[in-house]
Amino acid sequence: MDFDPLTADFPQRLEFDEEQEAQAQGKSEPCSPLVLWAMGEQTQLSDGCMKVAQLVIGCSRDWLALLRLAPCKLEIAGSIIVVDHSLAGVCLQPHLKDSTCLSVRVNGQSSLLLLCQYAVPDEQAVLWAEAVYSAIRPEQTLIFASQPSRNYSIDNSEDPSCYMLNTDQARSAASHADRACDIPLLPAGQLLTGLPAALLSLCQVRQLKATLLVSDQAGGQHTRLRQLQSSLAILLKALPGSWNWLNLGEDIVRKAAKDLEAASPSTRASLYA
Question: GO CC: one term (predicted)?
Fold first, then answer.
């Protein structure tokens, strides 16, 4: 196509285009999350790190609803703050509606529970994982997550399912303890993305013992929670060490279902949102 500079119209630049270019040029690399500790916890730091025997990370609403009701004494130890993330409306007491990530000490012992209640973008998941494991050095990690069933190519339409993935160190520890787990491994070639993948990959690279329990999001709410409770009970029996504080009863499942329902926007409110 010929372009005659004497007769043809020159392309015009709009103010909107210039603003977009200015924003693109001004964009910087995402900042690493801030790991903050309560005053009482800072005395437990060694070389700037918190050394714990057990680290449990919850990354989905279903798991969070269950974990926050664990039958043990939970004390807030700190929080993980994402830069530019608003904390407006956060309650003093942990709530499912809060967009926060609290670190909670279990029974005053060497166990930490991370309740990640905000969404971590995929492009920032590695930064988030690195910030956590730079501040916390666990002997063993459990990661609980959920992903849409479309991420799996297997047919699980009848019942919601849980799948497990281990780092090499965790697999070796389980084999030495002669403990088998009946939870199926995530089939080869299945897609695992986002924060769960970043956490498990980092643990693998750093040769840490870590186990990921990932569930699909198919089925009704109460059915999903009961499946998670059942899978967790199976997993705990196969893990070395004492995990009694994670034994969740049927009463906790019912309470978690009510909490999820209360935290979800009502149908009437969503119609006028």
Answer: endoplasmic reticulum
